[in-house]
Amino acid sequence: MTRSRRPDPRRPARRRRRSLRSLRGASLLRLRIGFVLIAMVVSVFAVRLFELQGLDAKAYAARAQAEGLVHITLPAKRGTVTDRNGVPLAESVNGEMVVADPTLTAKHAPAIATILAHRLHLDYFDMLERLQAPNTQFQYLARRVPAADARGVVKAIDAQGFAGVTTRRDPIRDYPAHDVAANIVGFMNDQNQPGDGEELVFDSWLTGKNGRATYTESGGNRIPLGDNSVIPPKPGRDLTLTIDRDVQWYAQRALADAVRGSNADSGSAVVMDTHTGQLLALADYPTYDPNAFTAADPDNLGSRAVRDVYEPGSVEKVLTTSALIDAGKVTPRTKIVVPPFVRSSDRIIHDDVAHGTWHLTLTGVLAKSSNIGTVLADRQFKPRQLYDYLRKFGLGEPTNLGINGESAGVLPSWRGWRQINQDNIAFGQGVAVSAVQMAAAVNTIANGGVYVSPSIVKGRAVTSDGRVVGSATQSRHRVISAKAAKEEAKMMVAVTGDGGTGPMAAIPGYLVAGKTGTAERVNQQCHCYDGTHTVSFIGFAPADKPRFLVYVVVQHPRNGGFGGNTAGPVFRRVMTYLLQKYGVPPTGARPPKTPLEW
Amino acid sequence: MSSSVTPARSRVPRLAEAAVARARLTVVPRHTNRATRVPFLALVSLLLVGGVAGLLLFNTSLQQASFTATALEQRANMLDAKAQALQMQLARLQAPQRLAERAKHLGMVPPSNPAFLRLSDGAVLGKPQPAGTTEDFRITPPPVGKPADLRPAPIVVTVPPSTGDTTPGSPDEHASAGRKKADQHTQPQGSAH
């Protein structure tokens, strides 16, 4: 037993070696091992196949498809804002921004800056600084560059072998006439969002719908039989204003000259087609250039002519006297004794010029703009009668022009009127209007007694908040009889004649109906009359067959001017231009011979 | 076994050997139509080669068309951009301000009074007056006032008075120092513009 236990160091080893050798020799075994190995490898493949095809096949398929698939947005062109003749006031142009990666451009900055300065008229030193800006990979070089110029300059830079200057889409909203009608049109800010004016009010109207294109691409070229789908962009709709750009320009410059000449705060001018109520110009001064809106004073944005309300003063007498004539209370020849002053409640009402007792006809009262005469005539009205007439003239409610920030004006209810309230309102104090409101009200006289709601959008357009506005939606209603309107127009001719307050508004050869206004202004701080004035002139021509109405308002002239000599000349210039531009010859009628005094 | 059969067979007398031989059915040698296969093969291979080549050519031409389309599209985009830029330039040239300034430069003035000539009878409507300078008014808008944020107070750099010992050295050095001073002065002004 001990012997058998004793291991022979040689024999077993020899046997094992022999058996191994025999095993290796067995082809069957070799085959089996091979099969197992192959099966293992194949099962690895099978698992991977199942993973790819079975578990998230869709995701992989999508990824495979996305390889080389290009999605681009086709930007829709924003609608153009044009004047009544189709001349663009705001239009969109393909633009690009030129940007630099200073980590790439710093080395060749002077050479690149030279190209930029030459081709895009940029400041060389500014460019140099931007191209070498430290610790950044993004610098604006120029924004809102026309696409052709931007690509041209990048091509030129690339051609020199410099890298790091690229372009990106940056649409341009161009205002070719600069400040002309800027108060109406508004501007687009640098984020390409509407900032003010019609751009803001009609944003949804002007904005188009972006399109989409999807295609497979390789090396910058479309693969012909690959995926390819295009949804074309839907461009925004155009907006046509009733403004005539040339008239607007002329009115703006004539107004600016008067405001600067009289060292006034601001001014507005409204030009209206008497029959249609369409505004041919709506000028404000000071204004701004929408191409450089960042430099504009925020106070100058928007339109003062619709936004600011003020007490109209004597211009209102046109409404009061025409209402009195319509009601049959007076005639142009009604004789009125005008004392030096008149008591009203606990106040005393004076005229602008101190005088003794005047013996004036109603025409004389209007021509000389007598507050006292107007008050005495108006006292034949009960408060409600005057109030109703003024409401029908459109006072106290917005005109729904389609301009943002429009004011309704202030016409206090007749129920609370004391004697002094009615007397004040009769000559235009204690009531507040916007320039457009007042123009539309007096236009009723020019239009034969029918009020036409003013419009600034030609045809019809829908604002972003869903209001339908435009000349196609305007309303008309009769306020006074045609006869009363004619008589009032005749009385207004006396204003620009001898003995009237507005001879500087007269146009030789034409009958011009007008009315001056000089009103006391309310100070916003103290809520009191602070001795400053609002001067204005409103009128239409030819008086016997009116075509145009022009209203000019100047706020706080510091040269002691009044309506006749500050706003009157602006009226004459603009009206002269209108009559000549639209070819309106004089009617040849003689001025009415209604006496002013008796 | 085979050894037992062979002798039995050999025992059969050979009678009418020729008739037997005639009656024995033998496999008729197949009549092979030796019509040539070459045209068919040629046709098939021609179709195959033609098809492949055609497909290749078609693909190539499609690809070529795609290149052309891309190039033309880029060109159209470029031309469109150019047209828009020119349109913009034209609109700016047509702006009333520019036209008025040019007209004024030529000595033209606004009419002082509208008057018309009726062609049918030569009558003058209105009161014609010679255009004078009375109607002339400023047409250039004043420089736009900038908001306070964009009007930084000018930065005044006081340059220390040059000490006497700085002898005029090399002209280059002097010039560069002068330029540096000028830069310091102009920079704040430049940013205010």
Describe, in plain words, how this protein is organized in 3D:
The complex is a heterodimer of chains A (about 600) and B (about 190). Chain A is α+β, with helices and mostly antiparallel strands and about 600 residues long. Chain A has 21 helices and 24 strands. Chain A folds into 2 domains: about 75-240, Penicillin-binding protein 2a (Domain 2), CATH 3.90.1310; about 245-290 and about 300-580, 3-Layer(aba) Sandwich (Beta-lactamase), CATH 3.40.710. In chain A, a hairpin with a 6-residue loop joins strand 23 and strand 24. Chain A is elongated. Chain A starts with a helix and ends in a 17-residue tail after the last helix. Chain B is elongated. The longest helix of chain B is centred in the middle third of the chain and has 56 residues, at about 40-95. The model of chain B is unreliable at about 1-5 and about 165-193 (pLDDT under 50). With about 190 residues, chain B is an all-alpha fold. The chains are: A alpha+beta (about 600), B mainly alpha (about 190). At the A-B interface, strand 3, helix 8, strand 9, helix 12 and helix 21 of A face helix 3 and helix 4 of B.
Q: Give the terminus-to-terminus CA distance of chain B.
A: 128 Å
Largest interface here, residues on each chain?
Answer: A-B, 56 and 46 residues
Class by helix and strand content of chain B? mainly alpha
Chain-averaged pLDDT of chain A: 89
CATH topology of the largest domain in chain A: Beta-lactamase
Which blocks of ≥5 consecutive residues of chain A have pLDDT under 50?
A: none
Strand count of chain B: 2
Largest sheet of chain A: 5 strands, antiparallel
Whole-number count of domains of chain A: 2
Radius of gyration of chain B: 55 Å
Question: Beta-sheet strand percentage of chain B?
Answer: under 5%
Overall geometric form of chain A: elongated
- Radius of gyration of chain A, in Å, reads 40 Å
Strand order of the largest sheet of chain A: 13-12-24-23-22
Proportion in helices of chain A: 25-40%
Q: Could you say which structural class the secondary elements and strand pairing of chain A correspond to?
A: alpha+beta
- Following the backbone from N to C, one meets helices and strands of chain B in this order, namely HHHHEEH
Overall 3D form of chain B: elongated
